[in-house]
Design brief:
single chain; about 90 residues; mainly alpha; about 90% helix
């Protein structure tokens, strides 16, 4: 992939994350790339391309990281409540 295409993808992913306050996983699914690619685009490439966009996207990712354990707990609770209903 040409450098220009990578930079365009990086900016689009960052804008999507900021607008939708979504996770790396959700952005990866939307743009049909791996979570590793999204993470590398935001954490490494974006800072060199657009510093302000990087800071805004990083804020969203930092909030997601801080809330990650809560979402995991909710998913586990939901899973177990479904299993109990099946019995």
């Amino acid at each position: 992939m040409r450098q220009c295409q990578i930079e365009e993808r990086t900016v689009k992913i960052a804008e999507y994350i900021i607008e939708n306050k979504c996770t790396v996983r959700e952005a990866a699914k939307k743009f049909e790339v791996s979570k590793s690619t999204v993470h590398k685009d935001i954490v490494e490439r974006l800072e060199k391309i657009n510093k302000q966009l990087y800071l805004n996207a990083r804020k969203v990712l930092d909030v997601n990281k801080a809330e990650r354990h809560l979402r995991g707990g909710m998913a586990t609770k939901k899973k177990h409540s479904i299993l109990l209903l099946e019995k």
